[in-house]
Amino acid sequence: MVKISDELINKIKESNDIVSVISEYVELRKSSPQSPIWVGRCPFHNEKDGSFKVNEQTQSFYCYGCGAGSKDVSSGSDVISFIQDKEGLSFVDACEFLANRAGIPFVMEPPNPKIEQAKKEATSHNIRYFKNLWNPNNPGAVNALAYLRGRGLNDQTIRDFKLGLVPQDEIKYRNNIVDIAGKIAFPIVEVTNDPIKAATLGMSYRLPQNNPPEPKYKNDPTSPAFNKGHLLFGLNHAQKEIRNKKEGIMVECYFGTMMLHQYGIKNVVSTMGTMISEDQIKLAKKYAKKWYILYDADDPGRNALFNRVLSKMLELGLEPWFAPLPEQEDPDEFIVRVGADEFKKWLQDNAVPLLDYYVEKTLTEYERTIKEKQTAILKKIMPLLEHINPYEKEVINSLIRKRLGL
User: Fold this and answer.
1) Pairing of strands 29-30, 37-40
2) In this structure, which topology does domain 6-102 adopt according to CATH?
């Protein structure tokens, strides 16, 4: 992946005053003669009040109406971010746009040969797997396609996401990985504005059956191009929709991402596992601040999500929302059952800020624990009171109720 040097990025920012750039899109006025704050109508939503603020001193922007930009001036609110959001460009393309505006030569650092080689190898493997999946003379491919179709995926979605099938004799081609022969390959593809040239970074693998052995998925080894904790599955398909909507949806499994895309809900990615890493949070923030987390709320491992992940999201300036899936369904099962319109309505009606959900869950757990302790204490004491006179019994009962808060 090409890289822009930090020196060039800083030069681009220094040569493109944010007030000057945004003034090409928005009519700005100073909030007061001595203030560094400029005010205008937000270019990202319809408004009359002028909630859009540009800080000349910090070279940042933020809309108090729709949340565009960021109060955290260290990320998501500089002139490059504005052009990304307004023009719908990738970070690299936004930098080139501003470099051309300022007359700065736009020269990127040469690609890292180790990364390029890893991408080349992963892409080559994925091409073979893709062809193998569509081989009508291969009984394994027939079975794998039947499984994918049985999960609700149509052929176009299977092709769009470049799914493949690992040949049974894969050991001839890759002797550094075992236990993937005969498995469906789910490629993680680089994010680029040219999907035809997008390279495969790495893959995950799963047996084509409903109840595979645990763990369900096996991943490629970490390489210079692939680290599952740094990437989001489906982001190459979702990036533009996430930017346009200014919000994204995170699910746990690949099928959830693919099925929601198939039903027209395209701002969806999956985290390739039950835990959201800090690097994935940072990656998500590059595309939107508001994220819906569609995870199973009853999973025992959710305490980490509600604690460590929530803390990191809030620290980095994201707006996480949570919608507990009904009846322990996965997103792909749920949307097949209710359809796209009902799914959107359900999300609108049931999603709450993740912090609110966590606070309510924690308080409810506290209250439940207190009630259990109260019940246990009463079970110990009450039988003993049957052996004393009514007056003493009433005195002790009063003491118990007072001490237990009943």
Assistant:
1) antiparallel
2) DNA Primase; Chain A (3.90.580)
